[in-house]
Amino acid sequence: RLQLPSLADALALEPGITVTRNGPVGGFTGLRIRGADATQTLVVIDGVRVSDPTAPGGGFDFGSLLSGGIARVDVLRGANSVIWGSDAIGGVVLVESGGSDGISADYGSHDSKRIGGRERFDAGPLTLHLGAATLHSDGLSAARSGTEADGFRQYRGHIRAAGDIADGLSVAASLIHADSRLDLDGFAPPTFALGDTAEFQKAKETYASARVEYRWDNFMQSLSLGVADTNRDTFDPAAGSIPTFAARGRSERVSWQGRYNDSGDALSAIVGLDREWSRSATGSAFSADRGSTAISGAFAHVNLRPVESLRIGAGVRIDDHRRFGSDTSLSAHALYELLPMLALRGGYSEGFKAPTLFQLSPTPSGFGNPALAPEESRGWDIGFIVRRSERQVGGDPVGMRIEASLFRRDSRNLIDFVSC
Question: How far apart are CA 56 and CA 383, in angstroms?
Fold first, then answer.
């Protein structure tokens, strides 16, 4: 309803979230949850983990994620590594493509133009969603002292299909592709201070996923595959038509999950297995680097409701990384309904983040350290929830929910870059 061009602009209005952006729309945008670094936020789009293996910290750039073509966003605050694995130290952002059908267009300052459209089709047991959007903006200078506007343009399309193909058997698949160009400011000689330059960056992002799910009685199991591919090239017209920096990153992940929910809601459990392969290749006139790795994980989480007013849960996860070995994460939580409209809650959670391929690189010009261990965190939070049951007003549900939280997170083995 706010019609903001970037999803990050909308998420910045949520409690506990801070957004930082370098320059105009399209510039690198990091999202921090509860004070954690932007690279410690896991982002999942249609089931695909979209971190960039070629980025120094492996974080996701929200600058290229427009608000159009999105049906739902969930934000999980605090460490969630038991279920989600690496990168989920600050929290998790889950994005589902889709949205309402129709065409929209708007125009704003800096000659900003945005057009988008979505349509739904039914093909037998499957429902197909198609969408496309484009954004063009002259932008403004990323350098404070600059006078040259740094523009941004993006073409984006997505297709998603889902449906029930047999009794208890459902399938879903998604494909998203974005083609972007962003004007950059750089560090030109002789002062090498940030200022106006003719440099620009081209990026192509492709995310694909497929999922098969089978349900019978109180059991459900699913098998998922996700692929994320990111290509980035930086150009300097003064140096010719060959990219001055090129990056190619790709990750592939396969996962299986099994769930059980009893009919009385007294017991639920989830177990899972997953494996992810990542590789990256970067190159410039000064150096080139290439690397690959893999990580496997297994987890289990159980929720109990021993009495009507009390819910408790606990989980454990074990990951094994090809480079640094194994890591274990734990979590526990409880919620007690003191009154029909008042609930108290608290929890303990651990998180970890595997070093990126850039950080682990053994190449002399790659600035890495193969001996790095994963970043780890331990945290707790307590709080209360006040709820007022929904009522119908003019056909729309109206209610009230107030939450307050006190949390603390302690981290160790944090990885930083120091220039020598």
Answer: 35
